[in-house]
Design a protein that fits this description.
alpha/beta; Rossmann fold; nine-stranded mixed β-sheet; two-stranded antiparallel sheet
Amino acid sequence: MRPTPARLLNILVPVKRTIDYAVKIRVNPDQKGVDLNVKHSMNPFDEIAVEEAVRLREKLKDEIKSIKVVTIGPPKSIETLRTALAMGADSAIHVEIPDSAPAPEPLGVAKALRALIEKQKDGVDLVIMGKQAIDDDAGQTGQMLAGLMNWPQATFASKLVVDPATKEANVTQEIDGGLQEVKAKLPLIVTTDLRLNEPRYASLPNIMKAKKKPIEKVSPADLGIDLTPRLETIKVAEPPKRQGGGKVESVDELVAKLKEAGFLSKS
Protein backbone atom coordinates (compact mmCIF):
# COMPACT_ATOMS: atom_id res chain seq x y z
CA MET A 1 0.00 0.00 0.00
CA ARG A 2 1.34 3.41 -0.97
CA PRO A 3 1.62 6.01 1.82
CA THR A 4 -0.84 8.88 1.68
CA PRO A 5 0.94 11.92 0.22
CA ALA A 6 1.38 14.86 2.58
CA ARG A 7 -0.95 17.80 2.00
CA LEU A 8 0.72 20.67 0.18
CA LEU A 9 1.26 23.86 2.13
CA ASN A 10 -0.88 26.97 1.76
CA ILE A 11 0.64 30.32 2.71
CA LEU A 12 -1.29 33.48 3.59
CA VAL A 13 0.45 36.86 3.51
CA PRO A 14 -1.38 39.92 4.91
CA VAL A 15 -0.20 43.21 3.37
CA LYS A 16 -1.02 46.85 4.04
CA ARG A 17 -1.11 50.01 1.94
CA THR A 18 0.80 52.72 3.80
CA ILE A 19 2.26 56.14 3.09
CA ASP A 20 5.50 55.57 1.20
CA TYR A 21 8.51 55.43 3.51
CA ALA A 22 10.25 58.25 1.61
CA VAL A 23 7.39 60.75 2.05
CA LYS A 24 7.74 63.50 4.65
CA ILE A 25 4.78 63.13 7.02
CA ARG A 26 2.65 66.23 7.67
CA VAL A 27 -0.20 66.68 10.13
CA ASN A 28 -3.50 67.54 8.43
CA PRO A 29 -5.27 70.86 9.19
CA ASP A 30 -7.84 69.43 11.63
CA GLN A 31 -5.05 67.75 13.65
CA LYS A 32 -6.93 64.45 13.68
CA GLY A 33 -4.38 62.60 11.57
CA VAL A 34 -1.78 63.06 8.84
CA ASP A 35 -2.07 64.18 5.23
CA LEU A 36 -2.98 61.09 3.19
CA ASN A 37 -2.98 62.84 -0.20
CA VAL A 38 0.55 61.61 -0.89
CA LYS A 39 2.28 58.64 -2.48
CA HIS A 40 1.39 55.26 -0.99
CA SER A 41 3.05 51.86 -1.36
CA MET A 42 3.19 48.46 0.30
CA ASN A 43 4.37 48.46 3.89
CA PRO A 44 8.11 47.56 3.66
CA PHE A 45 7.89 44.75 6.24
CA ASP A 46 5.01 43.23 4.24
CA GLU A 47 7.15 43.32 1.09
CA ILE A 48 9.66 41.20 2.98
CA ALA A 49 6.87 38.79 3.93
CA VAL A 50 5.72 38.40 0.31
CA GLU A 51 9.32 37.89 -0.81
CA GLU A 52 9.87 35.19 1.82
CA ALA A 53 6.74 33.32 0.73
CA VAL A 54 7.90 33.37 -2.89
CA ARG A 55 11.40 32.24 -1.89
CA LEU A 56 9.94 29.35 0.07
CA ARG A 57 8.10 28.15 -3.01
CA GLU A 58 11.22 28.53 -5.15
CA LYS A 59 13.13 26.42 -2.61
CA LEU A 60 10.46 23.83 -1.81
CA LYS A 61 9.05 23.79 -5.36
CA ASP A 62 6.05 21.42 -5.49
CA GLU A 63 5.55 21.39 -1.70
CA ILE A 64 3.81 24.79 -1.74
CA LYS A 65 0.30 24.71 -3.17
CA SER A 66 -0.61 28.39 -3.03
CA ILE A 67 0.46 31.83 -1.87
CA LYS A 68 -2.50 34.09 -1.16
CA VAL A 69 -2.22 37.75 -0.14
CA VAL A 70 -4.87 39.72 1.71
CA THR A 71 -5.35 43.38 2.54
CA ILE A 72 -7.91 45.38 4.48
CA GLY A 73 -8.30 48.87 3.10
CA PRO A 74 -10.02 51.32 0.74
CA PRO A 75 -10.47 50.70 -3.02
CA LYS A 76 -6.95 51.95 -3.85
CA SER A 77 -5.49 49.11 -1.77
CA ILE A 78 -6.00 46.89 -4.81
CA GLU A 79 -2.77 48.43 -6.16
CA THR A 80 -0.91 46.94 -3.21
CA LEU A 81 -2.39 43.53 -3.96
CA ARG A 82 -1.35 43.83 -7.62
CA THR A 83 2.21 44.54 -6.49
CA ALA A 84 2.22 41.39 -4.36
CA LEU A 85 0.77 39.35 -7.24
CA ALA A 86 3.48 40.70 -9.55
CA MET A 87 6.10 39.60 -7.01
CA GLY A 88 4.84 36.03 -7.26
CA ALA A 89 1.68 35.51 -5.18
CA ASP A 90 -1.07 33.43 -6.84
CA SER A 91 -4.27 35.14 -5.73
CA ALA A 92 -5.56 37.85 -3.44
CA ILE A 93 -8.41 38.85 -1.16
CA HIS A 94 -9.45 42.47 -0.70
CA VAL A 95 -11.47 43.26 2.41
CA GLU A 96 -12.73 46.59 1.14
CA ILE A 97 -13.66 49.46 3.41
CA PRO A 98 -14.76 52.99 2.38
CA ASP A 99 -12.22 55.76 1.81
CA SER A 100 -13.82 57.66 4.67
CA ALA A 101 -13.53 54.78 7.13
CA PRO A 102 -10.84 55.05 9.82
CA ALA A 103 -7.92 52.67 9.62
CA PRO A 104 -8.74 49.43 11.43
CA GLU A 105 -6.94 48.72 14.68
CA PRO A 106 -4.69 45.65 15.15
CA LEU A 107 -7.34 43.64 17.02
CA GLY A 108 -9.90 44.28 14.28
CA VAL A 109 -7.39 43.24 11.62
CA ALA A 110 -6.51 40.09 13.57
CA LYS A 111 -10.19 39.15 13.89
CA ALA A 112 -10.73 39.71 10.16
CA LEU A 113 -7.71 37.53 9.35
CA ARG A 114 -9.02 34.80 11.64
CA ALA A 115 -12.37 34.86 9.84
CA LEU A 116 -10.62 34.66 6.45
CA ILE A 117 -8.43 31.76 7.56
CA GLU A 118 -11.46 29.85 8.81
CA LYS A 119 -13.18 30.36 5.43
CA GLN A 120 -10.31 28.92 3.36
CA LYS A 121 -11.43 25.55 2.01
CA ASP A 122 -7.88 24.26 1.62
CA GLY A 123 -6.79 25.60 5.00
CA VAL A 124 -3.81 27.80 5.87
CA ASP A 125 -0.56 26.28 7.10
CA LEU A 126 1.64 29.35 7.40
CA VAL A 127 0.92 33.05 7.85
CA ILE A 128 3.87 35.30 7.04
CA MET A 129 3.38 38.97 7.82
CA GLY A 130 5.38 42.10 8.57
CA LYS A 131 6.32 42.62 12.22
CA GLN A 132 4.74 46.09 12.09
CA ALA A 133 3.32 48.72 9.77
CA ILE A 134 5.30 51.93 9.37
CA ASP A 135 2.22 54.15 9.81
CA ASP A 136 1.07 53.14 13.30
CA ASP A 137 4.15 51.10 14.37
CA ALA A 138 1.84 49.01 16.58
CA GLY A 139 3.53 45.64 16.01
CA GLN A 140 0.56 43.76 17.49
CA THR A 141 -1.44 42.08 14.73
CA GLY A 142 0.66 38.93 14.34
CA GLN A 143 0.69 38.24 18.06
CA MET A 144 -3.06 38.89 18.37
CA LEU A 145 -3.80 36.59 15.43
CA ALA A 146 -1.73 33.82 16.99
CA GLY A 147 -3.68 34.24 20.21
CA LEU A 148 -7.06 34.18 18.46
CA MET A 149 -6.12 31.11 16.41
CA ASN A 150 -4.32 29.39 19.30
CA TRP A 151 -1.38 28.85 16.93
CA PRO A 152 2.33 29.11 17.76
CA GLN A 153 4.09 32.32 16.74
CA ALA A 154 7.65 33.27 15.82
CA THR A 155 8.17 37.04 15.75
CA PHE A 156 10.96 39.23 14.36
CA ALA A 157 12.20 36.48 12.04
CA SER A 158 15.60 36.98 10.38
CA LYS A 159 15.70 33.42 8.97
CA LEU A 160 12.95 30.93 8.17
CA VAL A 161 13.38 27.24 7.31
CA VAL A 162 10.27 25.12 6.70
CA ASP A 163 10.21 21.31 6.55
CA PRO A 164 7.02 20.21 4.72
CA ALA A 165 7.59 16.55 5.62
CA THR A 166 7.51 17.10 9.39
CA LYS A 167 5.29 20.21 9.19
CA GLU A 168 7.83 22.10 11.29
CA ALA A 169 9.63 25.42 10.94
CA ASN A 170 12.90 26.67 12.38
CA VAL A 171 12.91 30.43 12.87
CA THR A 172 15.87 32.58 13.83
CA GLN A 173 14.72 35.60 15.81
CA GLU A 174 16.51 38.85 16.52
CA ILE A 175 16.61 39.58 20.25
CA ASP A 176 18.47 42.07 22.42
CA GLY A 177 22.14 41.16 22.28
CA GLY A 178 21.97 38.40 19.67
CA LEU A 179 19.90 35.76 17.90
CA GLN A 180 17.83 32.83 19.10
CA GLU A 181 16.44 29.90 17.14
CA VAL A 182 13.00 28.46 17.85
CA LYS A 183 11.22 25.43 16.40
CA ALA A 184 7.46 25.34 15.94
CA LYS A 185 4.83 23.09 14.43
CA LEU A 186 2.61 24.25 11.58
CA PRO A 187 0.17 25.97 11.38
CA LEU A 188 2.30 28.92 12.43
CA ILE A 189 2.33 32.73 12.48
CA VAL A 190 5.66 34.32 11.47
CA THR A 191 6.38 38.06 11.56
CA THR A 192 9.28 39.34 9.48
CA ASP A 193 12.22 41.55 10.40
CA LEU A 194 14.32 43.69 8.06
CA ARG A 195 17.23 41.28 7.71
CA LEU A 196 15.13 38.30 6.58
CA ASN A 197 15.61 39.12 2.89
CA GLU A 198 15.72 41.86 0.27
CA PRO A 199 12.48 42.05 -1.75
CA ARG A 200 12.71 41.73 -5.52
CA TYR A 201 11.49 44.24 -8.06
CA ALA A 202 8.52 43.01 -10.06
CA SER A 203 9.43 42.55 -13.73
CA LEU A 204 7.25 44.01 -16.49
CA PRO A 205 6.06 40.56 -17.68
CA ASN A 206 5.05 39.65 -14.12
CA ILE A 207 3.26 42.99 -13.72
CA MET A 208 1.25 42.17 -16.84
CA LYS A 209 0.52 38.63 -15.60
CA ALA A 210 -0.64 40.02 -12.25
CA LYS A 211 -3.53 41.80 -13.98
CA LYS A 212 -5.04 38.40 -14.81
CA LYS A 213 -4.64 36.85 -11.36
CA PRO A 214 -7.84 36.57 -9.30
CA ILE A 215 -8.70 39.08 -6.58
CA GLU A 216 -11.69 38.23 -4.38
CA LYS A 217 -13.55 41.15 -2.84
CA VAL A 218 -15.33 40.80 0.49
CA SER A 219 -16.65 43.22 3.07
CA PRO A 220 -16.21 43.19 6.86
CA ALA A 221 -19.91 42.30 7.07
CA ASP A 222 -19.29 39.20 4.92
CA LEU A 223 -16.80 38.10 7.55
CA GLY A 224 -19.04 38.99 10.46
CA ILE A 225 -16.46 41.51 11.67
CA ASP A 226 -16.91 45.03 13.03
CA LEU A 227 -13.83 47.14 12.28
CA THR A 228 -15.05 50.22 14.17
CA PRO A 229 -12.07 51.52 16.19
CA ARG A 230 -12.28 51.27 19.95
CA LEU A 231 -9.90 54.20 20.40
CA GLU A 232 -10.49 57.86 19.48
CA THR A 233 -7.69 60.11 18.29
CA ILE A 234 -8.04 63.37 20.19
CA LYS A 235 -5.24 65.31 18.58
CA VAL A 236 -2.20 64.79 16.35
CA ALA A 237 0.63 67.33 16.56
CA GLU A 238 4.12 67.61 15.15
CA PRO A 239 6.99 67.29 17.62
CA PRO A 240 8.50 70.59 18.79
CA LYS A 241 11.24 71.92 16.58
CA ARG A 242 14.73 71.36 17.86
CA GLN A 243 16.64 74.42 18.97
CA GLY A 244 19.98 75.12 17.38
CA GLY A 245 23.11 74.36 19.38
CA GLY A 246 26.07 76.57 20.16
CA LYS A 247 29.84 76.16 20.09
CA VAL A 248 32.10 76.52 23.12
CA GLU A 249 35.80 77.32 23.10
CA SER A 250 36.89 75.28 26.13
CA VAL A 251 35.89 72.67 28.69
CA ASP A 252 35.47 75.37 31.31
CA GLU A 253 32.99 77.21 29.12
CA LEU A 254 31.11 73.94 28.48
CA VAL A 255 30.88 73.27 32.23
CA ALA A 256 29.65 76.83 32.82
CA LYS A 257 26.95 76.45 30.16
CA LEU A 258 25.78 73.14 31.67
CA LYS A 259 25.55 74.77 35.10
CA GLU A 260 23.51 77.65 33.66
CA ALA A 261 21.13 75.16 32.07
CA GLY A 262 20.74 73.32 35.39
CA PHE A 263 22.38 70.09 34.24
CA LEU A 264 25.24 70.44 36.73
CA SER A 265 25.33 71.60 40.34
CA LYS A 266 26.75 75.10 40.80
CA SER A 267 28.39 74.17 44.10
